[in-house]
């Protein structure tokens, strides 16, 4: 009986603690937002150069009643497609949005606009966006900044309307050159320091020997004179 009560108490505690430690599950969110991005499927964009035009609003094709009274903020994010998540656990998809690593890059965060008004935003792709295949997702947040709805440019399996972002090869080459130069400078600096330190120690030893020899000679002269 005591064991049964203990197990029941543990289960109850776990059910209460779960929402505190975990986050909102994507699978529980209604897809009440419609999101569109300007890149064509398969288009290749350059980080730090190209722009993406984004549009979002209520999903007019949502099968059900949309109650957006709780919507206060819309957060739009850039997300990795499955092809760019393979063998990369740091980009893994998890249903719990606190643990999910699919959408790591914030694009824009704006107050939610009611009355079915469509919002538009032009985003210059940031320089530090890694080369990968992406889609765009938007979350509707409530007053406590919890996700209560979402929408994305791809389908459920994230296999359509994908685009690629590539790092600028010229900038990458320049960055590699600068990094190589800095590394070489550090190595040369360490070598020069070691050489100068050895010379300093050698001079110190020679000076110490000369002083010792001078002291010995002086002592010998004094003894002879006596």
TrEMBL record:
The chain crosses the membrane at residues 172-196. Involved in nitrate transport. InterPro entries: Transptr_NO3_Nar2. One of its GO terms (molecular function) is nitrate transmembrane transporter activity. This is High-affinity nitrate transporter. Residues 1-22 form the signal peptide. Belongs to the NAR2 family. Keywords: Cell membrane, Membrane, Nitrate assimilation, Signal, Transmembrane, Transmembrane helix. One of its GO terms (cellular component) is plasma membrane. GO terms for biological process: nitrate assimilation; response to nitrate. The lineage of its organism: Eukaryota, Viridiplantae, Streptophyta, Embryophyta, Tracheophyta.
